[in-house]
Amino acid sequence: MPETNRAITNRILTALPAQEYERLFQRLTPVSLPLGETVYQPEERIKYVYFVTSGLVSLVANLKDGGTVEVGLVGSDGMVGLSVVLGDDIAPNQAIVQMAGAALIACEANICRIRAPSRTPTPAATAAIATTTGVSISRTSRPTPRAGG
Hints:
27% helix, single chain, alpha+beta, 5 helices, Jelly Rolls
């Protein structure tokens, strides 16, 4: 792995093969994620993907009755804008910073460069994303033990 990879705290980035990591790392820009900042609105074009390095971003879906529900939580083991890697640059949900932190961002066009010419993610990128996303989902879906129960 490249020396710079050791300093990165995002699990998707650290799971990428060295060659793909190097191609992407050159195009990443560090940004802060202030509490309450809206990263995306639903149905908005995704211009940047966020590899969260600290803090938490909540993914919120709008319901037909006007209510909202949190459908995901992204921390340093994930990325906001995952649909771009899968070929869709429209945000399905609202993304809001719930715990201030930081991220490394890449414009949508640069993320497309880690995909194969067929415009699908390379097998190595898919494996890195699937592995870290699966682990993240399993962590957030575990039941919380009740006190005294």
